[in-house]
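Integral membrane protein
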Amino acid sequence: MERAQERPSGQPAGGRAPEPVDLELLVHGVGGTTPEEMLGDARTVRVAGDDTAAVFRRAEDVSEDVSGAGAGPRGGPGARGGGGPVQEAYVWCNLTSGDAGRALWLLLLPFMVVNLAHWMRPAAPARPRAVRLYGLLVRLIALTLTVLLVAAACEVALDLVAWQCAGARDCARRHFWLAFLTPDAAQGPGVRRWTELLGTSGGWWAQPGRRLALAALVPGGLILLLWYLSHRTWSAYESHRPLVQGPAPDPDDSALARPGFWYGRRLVARLRAAHTAAGLLTIAAALATPALRFDHRPGGPGALDTLGVLLTACLLAGAGVTVAAVCRRGRDEHRVDQRLDPHLLRQLPLGALALLLLTALYTGWSRPDWHSTGRLPGAPAFGGLMLAQGALVVLLGLVAWGMYRSGATPSAPTTETDIDSASVLGPASVPGPASVLGRGSGPVLGIGSDPASDPDLSPRSDSGLGPGPGTDLGPDPSSRSDPDLGRVVKVLVKATR
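Structure:
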């Protein structure tokens, strides 16, 4: 049961403070329904939300709260006149509809899984360093996921297509759209007309470096798409400032009641810039490696070799700055942080883009005696990235196991929460009602309790039903014998206030 202190819009500010009320939240399944059916009453009033998702009450419950007089006993489950709580219906069926562009959010699904790894962190208020290490590992795993995603696109576009297929006569002949990348394949009249139309009949694109620079448009387009999707969700959700009403929350209250818990504008903007820069630097590294290896051979062009070394040093410096931006903490849950990092948000992606353009120019420089054979130099690094990510996952599991083992030891909670792994690129990290509360066309009933009034649900380090004050955002696996429906309902009730 959730006890809430609230003042309806019709009550004057100077009036008597309302008595705490018990709320019973009803949430329907993915089949959708109406608030009238959920509440069993034809007269309902929307008390929070909008046309997309909203919370409804019976009209007499709203009028009773405004007038302060009881409405008397009435029929139906949960009627306050019969001593039951006030029923609220959370209607979210419109969240499942929208434009076709939302289907592209599936590209952000892997990042949502990484975000969920943070919210599943074991409760360990006695080990603040382990909490911070856990958050750091989650952020690094998310960064390697971005690098692996872009590297996979480079593996296909740069290695398989531009380096191997376009460099082999038989493969290029079987794919006419690769004809302009190699002069040997321009044999038929249709292919010859295609190459003449592009003005490339002389084989200008036939050099391996220029083929690689052209193929880099594919992973570059992927990064642009990811940036657009993450920017769209950031603008629509993370930048929506929460309505902070009433006095400041109690420092010992649940983390869900803190003003900055639902506001990740600064954090997500910084992580989005860092992940965009990491993707651009990954493409630049894939372009620079084969050209640098060719120039660094004995008898290679000295000027290009020096330029390649300088570009490599700049790429390494950019990678270091990106990792530092990801590892940096900077979110305060106890206040609504309106600040941004304009220099980091703008200069980091633009600097990575400038390095990518310079690297593409360097790789596409004329090298008449350069021919592509075998695999693309640097391609085996893809396997090394997977091994590094696997090592980080194993280390994260060990840290989580240690936190789980020490989570049962009661101690004083810390005052700061490390949640920088939340919302790396995708939408909100907290799973929606459809993914948590299950399926079905009928309403799902859940009852939560206020930690201050229910000792069995009070926030403490050894409880898995609610986050402890400060650091405990994830459930303690030691007490997860049942689905934590009460905790989920508490999240939904807090989110609609």
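The radius of gyration is 28 Å.
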